[in-house]
Amino acid sequence: MGIPQQKRAWVQVLVVAWGLSLSAGAVTPAFAENAQAPPTRALVGDPAIAFQGGYLKFSEQVSGLVVGSRDAKQLFGMGDVLYIRVLPEANVKVGDRLTLYRPTRQVYHPVTQAPLGQIMVILGILQVTTEPKENVVSTRIEHAFDSISPGDLVMPFQLPPEVPAKQTTSGPLTGVIVDFKQARQVTAQSEIVYIDRGETDGVALGDRFSVIRPGRRLSLMTKNPDVVLAEIKVIGLQPQTATAYVVQSRDAIHRGDIVSRMLPPSPPVKEVPKAEGAPSVVAKVTPPEAPAPPPSKALEDVYFDFDKWALTDQAKKTLTAQAELLKQNANAAVTIEGYADERGSTEYNRILGEKRALEVRRFLTELGVSNPFTVMSFGKDKPFCTEKDEACYTQNRRARLVVAGN
Questions:
Q1: Which of 73, 180, 275, 314 has the greatest number of C-beta atoms within 10 Å?
Q2: What are the backbone angles phi and psi of residue 340, rounded to the nearest 5°?
Q3: What is the pLDDT of residue 405?
């Protein structure tokens, strides 16, 4: 079937209107459109996956939007020409590259229901081939990753950063899978997921996380073992969220599944060259001995009301006093542990404990504490008190500061 007459007419009117806006030297843009484009910039491996994977953000920079195409067709590919209406302040020039994107569905945290932003879907890469004429430029598609339509937005192109082959960070960190790139109920290997931890939480490109489904609670003190469902690798970072690639999976992944940062790989074993005829010898690379660090010290715990993470007046008083001690030891690393009482699910309390720890970190930072922080949550898994009464529950709703080398 052909393109409907009404749509074809609309496209033709658009192109004609654009052409009428040009000066008598209209031959120049046509020549520029057919000119040989400079070589496409390399976009392969993890950066390519990250670029196409999209990310969560509340809003994005806008340089312009698609207003039409040279050819009246539904699908566009490499080499096709699109017309872009650009903002005057975008300062777009011939040879510039633009990223085509489309904000899609709003994402909410599956536990707290807090808004996390929209999924920004990357559609392709364009190269500008004509100078702006009444704020309209012609572009050629260098890469097309998804369907493109009039109204899709463009922003300046930036090559994604390289993703380290191996994990470079360490330390416990937990979070939650909040959504998938594809609008489906579950996902699995080779797909893209988004988590609720980002750069401000200490996540780095290349980090590996295990995807965990907590075992069912059997009684107060016993539960089934946790199940490791998959392994994901962080390939894109935002301040409070991250984009990850599912490296491998053993079962379906759901929104709300827990993620826990894995340990970095061990140093490789180095083979020592042998003399001819001598037996093979393998030696381990042993770092020079360093003095053992002084033992860590836990500061006074702070406590929270039931199902709350806001700091009480007493908690603020305690933390204000501790802030002065931390300022005197500004290089000492601090781990903030969050806990909850036994009421509620394991997943909910893991998040609640982490929100309490994050609130402590926020308050200390506002007081001018600059120590390196690590935030982790044990939820209800490590109760301080095991009696089933309010006095015991109160002791378990706490945050604990552990200062290294103090």
A1: 180
A2: -140, 165
A3: 59
CA 127 to chain centre: 27
Answer yes or no: are the C-beta atoms of 350 and 377 closer than 8 Å: yes
In a domain, 271, yes or no: no
Closest listed residue to residue 231, CA positions, set 255, 256, 250, 254: 250
Gyration radius from the chain CA atoms: 27
Q: Report whether 171 contacts 261 (CB < 8 A).
A: yes
To the nearest 10°, report the CA torsion of 388, 391, 396, 402: -150
Answer yes or no: do 366 and 396 share one domain: yes
Selected residue with higher pLDDT from 321 and 32: 321
Phi-psi sector, 134: left (phi>0), alpha (psi -120 to 50), beta: left
Return the structure tokens found at 234.
Answer: 């962080």
DSSP state of 306: T
Alpha-carbon distance of 234 to 395, in angstroms, equals: 36
d(CA 123, CA 102): 7
- Is 96 part of a structural domain of the chain? yes
Distance CA 293, CA 402 (A): 14
pTM of the complete model beyond 0.70: no
**Closest C-alpha to 381, from 222, 153, 149:** 222
The per-residue pLDDT for range 183-242, each reduced to its tens digit, is 889 999 889 999 999 999 999 999 999 999 877 766 666 667 788 999 999 999 999 999
Q: In terms of domains, do 346 and 394 share one?
A: yes
Q: Of 259, 182, 333, 241, nearest to 55 (Cα)?
A: 241
Number of domains in the chain: 3
Which pair of structure tokens corresponds to residue 314? Answer: 């007493």
Domain that holds residue 343: 292-403
Are 24 and 147 within one domain? yes
pLDDT score, position 43: 66
Helix axis angle for 346-366 and 313-328, nearest 10°, is: 60
Q: Quote the tokens at residue 279.
A: 């037996």
CATH number of the domain that residue 56 is part of: 2.40.10.170
Residue 113 lies in a domain: yes
Spatial separation of the C-alpha atoms in residues 82 and 276, rounded to whole Å: 67
Give the pLDDT confidence of 62-97 residue by residue, as tens digits: 999 999 999 887 778 888 999 999 999 999 999 999
CB 88 within 8 A of CB 135: yes
Residue among 271, 305, 291, 296 at smallest CA distance from 393: 305
Does residue 297 have a pLDDT over 70?
Answer: no
Q: Which of 88, 123, 156 is the last residue of a domain?
A: 156
